[in-house]
Amino acid sequence: MHSAFLVEDQPAQREILSAALASVSDIEPVGWAETEMEAIDWLRSHPKPDLVVLDLFLNAGTGLGVLIKLQPQTLGLRVVVLSNSATSLLRRSCLLLGAEAVFDKADSMEDFLEHCRTMFEPEH
Fold first, then answer.
1. Percentage of residues in the chain having pLDDT higher than 90
2. Model's pTM, two decimal places?
């Protein structure tokens, strides 16, 4: 079982994500945050999760702010962005700031789940 931390401000979306991750990828959410500061505080004060699923627009602050302040590559965090606003500019920015992938909630949910399903498989 792998662990995930969800940075998502919509409770219904968190529930959907939790169920979807558990059903297709053996990933269990271990916590969540609705704001940039909650996410940063949690990630700095808890054991590192195997995956961070990050929305870009939060109740307070942004997912970009989380990426900037945490520098995922430096900390060894695997961050996948899942947002309703995955424009090409935001995609590039997220990738440059250390996200490993960016998916749009509206039209790439299946791709997101497939990425999560395969991300912990041993390489052949």
1. 77
2. 0.93
